[in-house]
Amino acid sequence: MRKIIFLIAFCIITSLSLPLVTAENTTNNTGPEFEVGLYTSIGFGLSFHGFEISVKNIGDSTAHNVTLTNLSIEGNVIYNNRVTKWERDIESGTTLLGSPNSLFIGIGRFTATMTVTCDEGIFGTGSGNGFIFGPFIIVP
């Protein structure tokens, strides 16, 4: 009986001295990564600032010279699509609010899909909904 109690006590003491989880240093720098969407706003579509695009860098490093490479809008909206280069760096964890270089006019609901890229070759795509009445744009 003493041998069994000694063996159980030995196993318990030995198991308590061993680490339960071994953690390795696995810091992966994945580079920039984007979260893209429409920023909640009320705008005027005839001033080249109809709405703002929110681009958040959720990666580990800075994104250089962020560019809006594609803007497509579904709905009753007339716009002239131009590529927008903000030429700003977005550090990790920060957000850039930028407007597309385009005029907007229309009526009704719309869905905007945006694609952004940077000098590092990383791209991100996002979409958002809004409402347009003439040149007035509301993004809830």
How many β-strand stretches? 9
Major beta sheet, specifics? 6 strands, antiparallel
Strand content: over 45%
- Class of secondary structure makeup: mainly beta
Uncertain runs: 16-27
Shape: elongated
Distance between the termini: 74 Å
Q: What does the average pLDDT come to?
A: 80
Strand numbers in spatial order across the main sheet: 2-9-8-7-4-5
Round the Cα radius of gyration to an integer and report it.
26 Å
Helix coverage percent: 10-25%
CATH fold category name = Immunoglobulin-like
Summarize the structure.
This protein is mainly beta.
Report on the structure:
With 140 residues, this protein is mostly beta strands. It has a single domain, classed as Immunoglobulins (Immunoglobulin-like, Sandwich), CATH 2.60.40. Helices cover 11% and strands 46% of the residues. The chain is built from one helix and nine strands; from the N terminus they run αβββββββββ. The strands form two sheets. It has a six-stranded antiparallel beta sheet, with no helix packed on it. The protein has a three-stranded antiparallel beta sheet with strand order 1-3-6, with no helix packed on it. A hairpin with a 4-residue loop joins β4 and β5 (84-85). The radius of gyration is 26 Å and the shape is elongated. The termini are far apart.
